[in-house]
Amino acid sequence: MENSEMIKELLFNQVEKPKGLVDVKAVNVFDNRYRINLWVQYEDEGLTRTKIGASYFAVLDGEELRLKA
User: Fold this and answer.
1) Which residues have C-beta within 8 Å of that of residue 48, sequence separation ≥ 6?
2) Beta bridge partners of 35
3) CB neighbour list of residue 34: distance below 8 Å, 6 or more residues apart
4) Is the dihedral of CA 9, 13, 19, 25 positive or negative?
5) Are 57 and 35 in contact (CB under 8 A)?
6) Quick one: which of 62, 12, 68 has its CA closest to 35?
7) pTM of the model
8) 7 exposure class (CB count in 10 Å sphere: 0-12, 13-18, 19+)
9) What is the pLDDT of residues 10-62, one digit of tens each?
């Protein structure tokens, strides 16, 4: 399984999917550390917009994902 798919699966075992989720981007910062951005769509004054609804810094250790504060 590709790291980004594994990270997505492991993340949603720990946190709830936000309303309007459209994309999950897991960016490798260095070594096994990732910035994970959850993109959501929302309505604003009749327009559909997209923004980062949640963001996490995490460490991937084998098949364990540890979220950092």
Assistant:
1) 41, 42
2) 27, 57
3) 7, 26, 27, 28, 57, 58, 59, 60
4) negative
5) yes
6) 68
7) 0.88
8) buried
9) 999 999 999 999 999 999 999 999 999 999 999 999 999 999 999 999 999 99
Question: What is the SS3 assignment for 34-47?
Answer: EEEEEEEEEEECCE
What are the strands, taking DSSP E only, across the chain?
21-30, 33-44, 47-61, 64-68
Which tokens hold the place of 29? 């910062």
Question: Tokens standing for 31?
Answer: 């070594």
CA distance 57 to 69: 7
What is the DSSP secondary structure assignment for residue 69, as one 8-state letter? -
The structure tokens listed for 27 are 């960016």
Distance between CA atoms of 23 and 41, rounded to whole angstroms?
A: 9
